[in-house]
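Hi P.,

Sorry for the delay on this. The queue was packed all week, but I finally got your sequence through. Input first:
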Amino acid sequence: MRHPLPLAGAALGLLLSVAAPAGPAHATQFVPVSLKQLGMATEAVVRARVVSVESRWSDDGEVIVTYATLEVSRSLRGGLFAGERIVVKELGGSVDGFAVAAIGFPQFNAGDELVVFLGRWDDDGNYRVAEYGQGIFRVKRQKSGDEVLDAGPVQDSPDHEEVPVRGPIAVGTTVDALFTQLKSIR
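Then the structure:
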């Protein structure tokens, strides 16, 4: 199979075509989605911890992909269970001194506590984060014990400038409030 990641290639092409006219800037823009649109684009929504992260070359050797193993602690939608481990695949990563930064795409770090909106890649059925960086949020525990959402970890530009990816959920929203909102979306 020559191109096992056709969507990935299309996404990278789109990113390059959007970013290229901007000259030396490393900006990528994503069309903002509403919570309803994000919810409709997902197969599952989970509260999870990143257990491990592995980057490797795609089967055709054309792109680096990262596989993150997540342990589900709570399923908001989609029938996954607490304690279940799932693997999420995203573009970008670093292998043997080669690095690919898919700017604005999700980035995973072992130990991260996250809420992730999950879709699937069309070509291989692996889980992916829905709507790129708009579908991933860090979870922070407040002194009160509440878990609140923060901006999700996304890949940045080669010069490490911050890449703002604004999702449809306000930073500071509690995980419980998000779950309540999701119940109203079908």
